Amino acid sequence: MSKSRARAFVRRLGVFALIVAVALLGAACVPQESSSTTAAGDTTGTTAADGGTSGSSMIITIVMYAVVIGGLFYFLLVRPQRTRQRRQQELQSALSVGDEVQTIGGIYGRIEYFDEETDTAVLQVEGGGKIRVARRALANKVRPKG
Question: Among residues 137, 107, 105, 106, which one has the least CA distance to residue 121?
């Protein structure tokens, strides 16, 4: 399975999990029918079963919603972003002079040198021209054909 198809599958799975979680939490919010008996000696008309369960069940429901939504945010947004950042950091540390690279703008070139002071790289492009790009603009290392 290709990466793009796998990502699309994971997104669909996440949306499905969100829908199921909301449905389950919604079902948990529906009050349960119970027999209402008046406590002995109670003249206010309140039942013994109403002792405060509705307030606590509402808090539990809100906490469950927060946990589910927080988990989905983590697995669908935060975790993939951290993975991309880690891969980009590994690429940046692995680059050296003489490597053939591609910039995020699609320019191909060979690294001539790095300027550590300004955090840039000078690339020699086809035709003998040189350009200076930010080091973070180097998207990936190009593998030689063959």
Answer: 137
Instruction: Give the bridge partners for 123, in sequence order.
Output: 111, 131
Q: Identify the bridge partners of residue 133 per DSSP, sorted by sequence position.
A: 121
Distances (CA, A) of 57 to 28, 30, 34, 50: 9, 10, 15, 12
Residues 59, 55, 49, CA angle at the centre, nearest 5°? 135
Give the per-residue pLDDT at 86. Answer: 93
Cross-strand partners of 134: 120
Average pLDDT value for the chain: 81
SS3 50: helix
Nearest-5° Cα angle at 46, 62 to 44: 140
Residue ranges with strand state E in the chain = 100-103, 108-115, 120-124, 130-134, 138-141
The arithmetic mean of pLDDT across residues 83-101, rounded, is 91
Count of C-beta atoms within a 10 Å radius of residue 72: 15
pLDDT at 15 over 80: no
